[in-house]
Design brief:
about 200 residues; alpha+beta; Laminin; Lipocalin; 3 domains; 9-stranded antiparallel sheet; two-stranded antiparallel ribbon; about 25% helix; elongated
Length: about 200
């Protein structure tokens, strides 16, 4: 009986060449996978901690002017100011003399001049047309990028709406005149470029 146990034990632990690979794989290779995953996880978490701790406050390099506040790396400008640091008045994009042409629906294209003047800092402007039936009117409005609407001119028979857009030195003006007494609606467009005054 003791010899049978010894034989039994001996056959149980006998290492054969094919079994050796399986034992090596089961003992060491499975451990290497878990060790590799652990090491990669450690470096991933460590790298994230290092990189996030080095992040700068995006507002530390901005100096928001004219009452602007920094939020997420951008200046939130008060009405009337724009630019990366709220250092540009909105009116400065519009103010100037523009030379171009006006086209009113069924009428021929005419050369025309449009003047936009600063009325009050930082963004109250006035629109004056050089010719046409609205030349005597002065439209006032609040400069806003990219489009500025002017206060509608209303008298007993005539209503005039005007708005402008500016792209660099180019101005586009939309003007709508409604005459109630004769039931007429006229739309005019001006396109022009800023010229030196």
């Amino acid at each position: 009986m003791p010899f049978q146990i010894f034989l039994y034990l001996n056959t149980q632990f006998e290492i054969k060449p094919n079994n050796y690979k399986q034992i090596f794989y089961s003992r060491y290779m499975k451990n290497w996978k878990s060790i590799l995953v652990t090491v990669l996880t450690f470096f991933t978490i460590g790298g994230m901690v290092v990189f996030t701790s080095c992040e700068k406050d995006p507002c530390s390099e901005l100096a928001c002017k004219n009452g602007g506040n920094c939020s997420d790396g951008y200046c939130q400008c008060p009405v009337g100011f724009e630019g990366a640091e709220c250092d540009i008045t909105a009116a400065s994009r519009f103010v100037g003399k523009y030379f171009g042409s006006t086209r009113c629906e069924n009428f021929p294209i005419e050369p025309d001049t449009v003047y936009i003047d600063l009325v009050k800092e930082p963004n109250e402007i006035q629109l004056r047309l050089g010719s046409g039936n609205t030349a005597l009117l002065g439209f006032s409005g609040t400069a806003r990028t990219p489009e500025t609407h002017f206060v509608t001119h209303i008298d007993e028979n005539i209503t005039v709406h005007a708005y402008i857009t500016v792209d660099g030195d180019l101005l586009a003006l939309y003007l709508e005149t409604i005459r109630k007494d004769i039931n007429l609606r006229q739309i005019c467009h001006f396109s022009g470029q800023r010229v030196a005054q």
